[in-house]
Write a structure and sequence with these properties.
The termini are far apart. β3 and β4 form a beta hairpin. Helices cover 10% and strands 40% of the residues. It has 142 residues and is mainly β. The protein has a domain at 27-106: SH3 type barrels (Roll).
């Protein structure tokens, strides 16, 4: 491994702080908790006050791009009838956690076609993982 890749791997480990991300891909519905920092002026103390809170952004992952420390993913949701997209860097200190709410079955790497779709045509069917342990009996047979 060359020196650049080694430094990049150390940086990625340091930024995530031991918290790994779940396996997800385009088509999956994600819940991304983002740290929001609010600053306000306190008239009494005559100084700036900062508050941190978590804000959830839930939507469909429509693409992943980049590699290594520059990797990011785009999440799209419909808010009050308007489509909202947000790009999150995977190795950002502002991304607190990512949860996979639902796994979607798609045949594309980039789901930009969802931008022009509304209603039933914008639905994504659920993916059922067919893998498992060998020798394990199906649940229906038990």
């Amino acid at each position: 491994m060359n020196l650049l890749k080694q430094l990049e791997a150390e940086q990625m480990k340091a930024v995530r702080g031991g918290k790994g991300l779940p396996e997800f891909r385009p088509g999956d519905t994600l819940k991304v908790n983002v740290k929001v920092v609010e600053q306000s002026w306190d008239e009494k103390a005559k100084q700036m006050k900062t508050r941190e809170r978590l804000q959830a952004f839930e939507g469909v992952c429509i693409g992943r791009q980049g590699d290594g420390i520059n990797e990011s993913f785009t999440v799209r949701k419909i808010s009050y009838g308007e489509g909202v997209e947000r790009v999150f860097p995977i190795y950002s200190p502002l991304v607190d956690s990512v949860q996979v709410v639902r796994k979607g079955r798609v045949r594309r790497a980039k789901l930009y076609y969802l931008r022009s779709r509304r209603g039933k045509s914008a639905r994504i069917s659920e993916r059922v993982d067919r893998g498992g342990e060998e020798g394990a009996a199906p649940e229906a047979a038990q």
